[in-house]
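Q: What would this chain look like folded?
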Amino acid sequence: MRVGERARILVIDDDPAQRELLDRVLSASGFHAATAPDGEAGLASADAFRPHLVLCDILMPGLDGFATMAALRAREATACPVVLLSAKEAPAGGAPDGAPAADACLAKPVRIPQLLATIRALLPAA
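A: My prediction, written as structure tokens:
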């Protein structure tokens, strides 16, 4: 991230209310936010948006959060920190066998101060 550049954060979540809330919170906090309704759309958005960080729901139809995260990290242009969000507890030990671990995992409903602190810890220039 260049000096003075707003951090780009992509929100991938199948819940429209959650996407809208996170978009508003991130924008109000000085981040440049974009949203996608599922993993496939998230991958396409990431190609165009080039996020510095991704917030991704775990339980989504089609590509779940772990598969989406693995696909993002497999491509140099979209490899970035990923924070997984889940309304349910993450599987014991975090990611399923063979899946990469997220940089952080937060429970829904997300507490905004915790979310912003996590983002700032993963993007020190933010």
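The two ends are 9 Å apart (CA to CA).
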